């Protein structure tokens, strides 16, 4: 994989591509127009019940129009389903009169299903390359009854109502180093395509991304997200850069993993956007499906 020049501000740049911080005078209409989307999509993507915005509010933005190169066995239906689009939308975007495709044909895939964030992305990020929705055997530790909460970097403050254990609190910037070796490796992977079950320098799935990043710093981790969940100890106290963060898009079993980078953000191979991205753990969607963090002690041993 080609190594590119890395600067600390690239992390912020990556975040800016998927989120927008509301400025004074902004409206949903002006933001939607600026980012080539609609008010309806922004409201649904951010679970907004009204159009009122607050200065400093962080909004999730829909992905740009994607590209897909037709592979053997592809159909318009399978491609539309993979990217959360529709056959009709793809036909209109590419001026197709029928459904016939050619190997190597490059299609533009317009955003469509971003308007329904209350449902898990399709296809859901995979725990293993064997099946997109594998079910662990009875008694498996991946069958979560009491999800592990995201460790808080500061002592909790009394609150009138308890916080649900599955929702993470906003991590503080207590352990951020832009020269951390994992940060430098992760930035090389940004934009790499997500493909279910893939594990190469051309495409990865969520757990393969984690495995490859750690391999580049000389640490071997298991292949699947559930194996990674079972292999390492639960984080106690403040999170650190390099901790693995786990999610359950399907409801109970671990089926997605990413790498915590500090400052409340994590990197992961995202099937929804079909690429490796950096996103905020404080996103309402990720709060809802978050299940816990694990620490790779071998990485801690490498750090001074």
Distance between the termini: 28 Å
**Strand portion, in percent?**
5-15%
Query: What can be said about the biggest beta sheet?
Result: 6 strands, antiparallel
Which structural class do you get from the secondary structure elements?
alpha+beta
**Integer average pLDDT:** 74
Q: Biggest sheet: strands side by side, in what order?
A: 5-10-6-7-8-9
Instruction: Give the strand tally.
Output: 10
Shape: globular
Could you list the spans in which at least 5 consecutive residues all have pLDDT below 50? 1-17, 113-160, 162-167, 169-173
What is the helix content?
25-40%
- The arrangement of helices and strands along the chain is HEHHEEHHEHHHEEEEEHEH
Could you tell me the radius of gyration in angstroms?
A: 20 Å
SS element count, helices:
10
